[in-house]
Amino acid sequence: MTNALSRFLLPVHCTCKDFNHPWTDSCSNAAAGILLSSIPYSLRIYTMVYALSLIMRHRVPRLADLKRTFLGILQSSAFLVSNSYTFIMINCLLRKLLGHYICATVAFVPCFFSSFASILVERPARRPLLTLYVANLATETLWNMAEVRGYVRSIPQGQTLIFGLSISALLYLYRLGLHKTACKDSLFNVLRFFVDKREEGPIAIKATTSAAGAGSPLGDAAAPSSNAQNSRAPLDFRSINVLVQIYSRFLDAVKSRHPSCPHRDNCWHYALMGGLKPFVGGVGIQVALRLIMNLKKIVQFKLDVWKTIFKKDTLNLGIFLGCFSFVYKGVSCTLRHSFEHDDARFAIPAGLLASVAFTTYPDVTVALYVMWKALQIGYNLGIQEGVLPRVPGFMLYLYSFCTALLFHAGILEPKTIRPSYFKFLQAISGDRLNRFNVEPFDVYGQNASQQMKEVSRKLNIINQAPLPKCSLASWK
Q1: What is the Cα–Cα distance from 126 to 130, expressed in whole angstroms?
Q2: What is the DSSP letter of 12?
Q3: Contacts of 187 (CB under 8 A, 6+ apart)
C-alpha cells in the first residue's frame, strides 16, 4: 500500500507540450484547436438529442418550442465544448505552476476543475441527467480499476443482484405512495407501465370481515368468498406446514382474487395479461432499435433483415420485461392471499423474485442506472425527512468527480472504461486522445502507453492524418 501511494506521488518531469500537444509549442493554440474541433461534434450530438426530445412529445412543435429547442442546443453544446478545451488549459496551467506532473494532475485534477466550470454553463434541468449518466459510467470504471488491481472480484450475475436490490427499494416507495409526494421522479412513470397503475400506493385500508361483502367491488357475490378467506387461520412460520399453507393459498390466488387485491379479474389472469403487454413492448423496442441501427445497410440491400433483426436474442428484452411483470404481480397476489391483507412491504420480496428475470437481459448499464436512481431518490427523501444533511452543490461535485475519474481512466487506464466512452473522448478531442504521449506515465504501473495502443487497435481507431483536427500547428 505504501509503495502504491509513493508511486502515485512520483513526479514526472514531462512538459505539457510533450504530453498533450506535441504538434504546437503554444498552450493557447492547443486549447483553441480543441475548441474549434469540438464545436461541430457537440452541435451534432445535441441537435439529435433535442430533436428526439421534441419528437417524443407527440405533438406538432410551436414556434416557441422550436426557439427553446434551438437555444437549448446552443447552451448544451457550449457546455460540452467548454468541458473539452478548458481541460487542456487547466492541464497546461497546473504543469507550469508545479513544474512537473504527478498521477493526479495528469488528468483527474484538471478535469475536475474544467468539469465543475462547464456544468455551470449547462441548463440546471439537465444537470441531474448528466450526473446520473457519468456516475453510471464512473461506477463501472472504478470497479474495473479495482478489479485490475486485485482489490475486488466480480461475481456471476452481480448486476442482477444490484438491479434486484435497487428496484425493490423503488417499488417499496411506489407502493407507499411516496412517488406522488416526497419522491417524485420520472422513473416511477416507467415502473407504472410494468407493475400496473393499480399497484401504486398509498394502499387503501379494506373493510373488516363483517363488512367485506358490502364493501367488495364485486358486491354480494364476493361476500361468501371474502368471509371464507378471512376466516382462515394465520400462517404459522414456526411449522413446516407453512409451505403447504402458502401453496394452498397460491392456488387460491390462481382461481380467485383476494378482497385486498387492487384488480377485478382473478389473480392468474391479472398476472398473465400484465406480463404480456411488456413482453410485446420489449420485443418491439428491440426490433425497432436494430432496424434503425442497420438502416443504411437495409437501404443498400447489404443486410439479411430476417437473420439479423429477428434472432433469438431479440426476445431477451421482451422476456425480461414480461417475466418481471408476471412474477411481481403473481408474488404480490400470493402474499395478499397468504397474509389476508395488502402491505407495501410485499413489494420487496416480490421485486427480488421478479428480478431473477434480469438474468435474461443482464445489462450492466441498466442495473447501475436503477441503482443510482434509487440512491438519488433515497438521498432526497433522507434530506426531506431530516435524516441526511443537505450538501450545497452536491450534484455539481458528483458530476465533476465522476467525469474526472473517466478522463483519468481514458488517458492512463483506457482498458477500464467503456469502449463507447473512449470513442466519445476521441471524437470530442478532435482525434487527439490516442495521440497523447502517455509513455512518461508508465512509471505509475498501469502501462498506459501499451493500453492506449491496444484499445485503439481493438476499436479500429486509425489516425488518417499526421495531425489532429484543427491542430493549429503552424502558429507560433
Answers
A1: 6
A2: B
A3: 170, 370, 373, 377
| pLDDT band at 303; cut points 50, 70, 90 | low
Q: What is the distance between the alpha carbons of residues 321 and 354, in angstroms, rounded to a whole number?
A: 10
The grid coordinates listed for 38 are 469540438
Residue 163's pLDDT is what? 95
Alpha-helical regions (H) of 355-470? 364-384, 394-412, 419-428, 448-458
Q: Which segments of 153-283 are extended strands (E)?
A: none
Q: Judge contact between 248 and 228, C-beta under 8 A.
A: no
Confidence of residue 266 (pLDDT cuts 50, 70, 90): confident
Q: Is the dihedral of CA 328, 329, 333, 334 positive or negative?
A: negative
Task: Say if residues 268 and 258 touch (Cβ distance below 8 Å).
Answer: no
Tens of pLDDT, residue by residue over 34-91, are 999 999 999 999 999 898 888 877 778 888 888 999 999 999 999 999 999 999 999 9
Strand locations in 197-306 (E) = none
Per-residue pLDDT tens for 114-173?
999 999 999 998 999 999 999 999 999 999 999 998 898 888 889 999 999 999 999 999
CB-neighbour burial class of residue 384 (10 A; exposed 0-12, middle 13-18, buried 19+) = middle
**Domain locations in the chain?**
2-153+391-458, 193-206+222-361
Peptide bond into 217 cis (omega under 30): no
| Cell, residue 341 | 391483507
CA distance to 164, 179, 254, per residue, from 171 (Å):
10, 10, 23
